[in-house]
Amino acid sequence: MAVTDPVQRILTSAPPRASSFIVTIYGDVVEPRGSVLWMGTLIECCARHGISESLVRTAVSRLVAAGRLQGERIGRRSFYRLSAAAQTEFRQAGQILFSPPSLPADWAIALSGDPLPGWVAFGSGAIAPFRAGLVLPAGPVLRAATISGANDLPGFAAGHWPLAEVAQGYRGFLDRFGGLTPQRTQGLADADALALRLRLIDEYRHAALADPRLPQDATPVDWPAAQAHDLFRDLYLRLSAGADRCVGHSFADSVGPLPEATPETRARMKALSR
């Protein structure tokens, strides 16, 4: 029989990919609470989503090999912390998810050189949305504004960035989570609230972090990014009281239980509330 309740349909759906979901757990729960987690907690949390212990251990080993996690053993227990590089990466991703900056209005155009991350090839050089912190290639770089032909910009952008795939990700997220009305999420058990929040952020972040965040006049008129972020923000705020209580009751690091809330988690909630 098909599951009709949207909450249970999400929680009983196919397991997420282990390595991706572990990254989600660390980004959502662990990074703002000290960046360390007991392996037993990780195994238990993933089991709730149909991910086996063997898959968790394999995924953790790969994350260690990739330099994103660092392990330590205390007695018979293993703990894993985010590497310094991963902490920086997670904080940058967290800004996009929880406190996204305004969309850029201008473009950066490099007259020569190979594209860097965030840039795409353009003629003999590269082009990127101009934003604070953009890493500039060597050689001349111009800051440009649109002065004509704005109607042709969406077609140009679609030929240089994977906008169709990003839009599909956003729309899939909206279809999957759009039925979670306040009535549907009212009275959830704390463990279900956390499980649902982890699924929420695991799916939303794939689209949001792939979004090149182009100037608004370069995206299609039906671009779903703002609608998807509004849904993400609303659900994250609604689920977090119960989810954070569950974290405080059932997550542990090498010292003891993780705190229910920290200044970092409160800052996230404040940013989303704005």
Largest sheet: 4 strands, antiparallel
Beta-sheet strand percentage? 5-15%
**What is the general shape?**
globular
* Secondary-structure-derived class: alpha+beta
CATH architecture of the largest domain: Orthogonal Bundle
| Overall helicity | 40-55%
Looking at this protein, list some descriptive labels:
274 residues, Arc Repressor Mutant, subunit A, 2 domains, three-stranded antiparallel sheet, 11 helices, 11% strand, globular, WH-like_DNA-bd_sf
What is the element layout, followed by pairings?
Blueprint: H1 6-11, H2 18-30, E1 36-38, H3 39-47, H4 53-65, E2 69-74, E3 77-82, H5 84-98, E4 107-110, E5 120-122, E6 125-129, E7 141-144, H6 153-160, H7 163-177, H8 182-185, H9 190-210, H10 225-250, H11 263-273
Antiparallel strand pairs: 1-3, 2-3, 4-6, 4-7, 5-6
Helix pairs in contact: 2-9, 7-9, 7-10, 9-10
Structure summary:
With 274 residues, this protein is α+β, with helices and mostly antiparallel strands.
Report on this model:
It is a single chain. The chain is α+β, with helices and mostly antiparallel strands and 274 residues long. The chain is built from 11 helices and 7 strands. It folds into 2 domains: 6-105 and 145-273, Arc Repressor Mutant, subunit A (Orthogonal Bundle), CATH 1.10.10.10; 106-144, no CATH class. The protein has a 4-stranded antiparallel beta sheet, with no helix packed on it. A 3-stranded antiparallel beta sheet has the order 1-3-2. A hairpin with a 2-residue loop joins β2 and β3 (77-82). The longest helix is centred in the C-terminal third of the chain and has 26 residues, at 225-250. The N and C termini lie far apart (41 Å). Residues 255-274 are annotated as: Disordered. This is Transcriptional regulator, PaaX family. Residues 17-85 form the Transcriptional repressor PaaX-like N-terminal domain.
